Amino acid sequence: MLFIVLLVVCTPWVNAGPGQPYQLRVEYLDEPVGMDVERPRFSWALHHSDRGEKQTAYRITVYSPESSQRRRPGEVLWDSGRVADEESTNVEYGGPKLKSATRYFWKVSFWDSKGVESPSSDMAHFHTGLFEQSDWQHWAKSAWLDGEKGNQLRTEVDVSRGKNLTAAHVYVMGLGYYHLRINGYEVGGAFLGPFTTFEVRLLYDVHDVTDTLRVGRNAVAVTLGHGWYAQPSVNVGGRCLLLLLIMEYDDGSIVAVGSDENWKQSDGPIVLDDIYIGETFDSRLETTAWDKPYYEDASWRQAALLSSNPSGQLNVSMIPPIQTIETFTARNITEPEPGKFVFDFGQNMAGHCSLHLSGGGISGSNVTLLHAEMIYENGSIHHLYSNSPELNV
């Protein structure tokens, strides 16, 4: 107990004065992967051992990436020097023009009211998106693919065996919704992409897939859904895909793969998907391992290019994604009518269900999942919310 008391007494003396800035943010985001603001704004939180202290000046340093190890800081790109200012939120970058598809590093220190400089913050980083629309064709001739010709698209890419992959990022725009998988693993894990005025602006995602790719052959697979973009009430266009994968090696070389007519395309087991009336999944059309390398896709069609590209400007989505944050199991299972089961999760939520069926079955049999917020006294569910008569059964 004596040791603990002495430790508490001594700690303020060890950390006296201004401490390291923390909670470093770029455009309000923590180390964003994909950010297409040409002059981004920096923010940080302050720490000081004394009460009533304040920042009187700051210094921001931004670094370019090392030429061979793209995940390490290299030369100084911009040094703000000592700037007499109390501002610690949304301080605008003032250096040379940033490059597309590049990871940058930065740190910050500040001075308190007594003119004492804090230790520098830990190094943080941010990765830029594609500033120009033409960047989609700069590294590879990425083209829009027509998802109405088949909602499953795939290709295979090689990662060199003779050198080390230092960074890999995929830039993907799937309209209306998409699921991206590499080597059988889901990338991003997001649901329900953002709704925008699609004719004006389209929001694409950037994913760091350095650790997902492996030496040798890799499979890139995308499933497309209609989402709001192709929903009849909005009806801007049909399903489509634009994708760019950029791989950087330790010798400074860059290899890129884009969506083009060399991809393969097929109709998947999702034969209907609609924001309001739900999804129809035909398991007889399901193919295993199509999202893994060395899959035999000779029977698949050559991917079709979109005849007319979407008109909206492409921008990085900097909106926090909708992701699974908790999983519930049914608290109660009842059978109000023969063959009709009600799974009560005891929680009103926005989510989706996972149902495992076993024991075989007759080909062509139907399993219908309906969702509701209320249960009638007889144990059946009140699900008549949809504007489609197909669900009102």
Report a brief summary of the structure.
This protein is mainly beta and 393 residues long.
What this model shows, in words?
The chain has one helix at about 1-15; strands at about 20-25, 40-45, 55-65, 75-80, 90, 105-110, 125, 145, 150-160, 165-175, 175-180, 185, 190, 200-210, 215-225, 240-250, 255-260, 265, 270-275, 280, 300, 315, 320-325, 330-335, 340-345, 375, 380. The chain is mainly beta and about 400 residues long. Strands 8, 10, 14, 16, 17 and 22 form a 6-stranded mixed beta sheet that branches. Strands 12-11-15-9-18-21 form a 6-stranded antiparallel beta sheet, with no helix packed on it. A 4-stranded antiparallel beta sheet has the order 4-3-6-7, with no helix packed on it. A hairpin with a 4-residue loop joins strand 16 and strand 17. It is globular, with a radius of gyration of 26 Å. The termini are far apart. Mean pLDDT is about 90; it is low at about 1-15 and about 385-393.
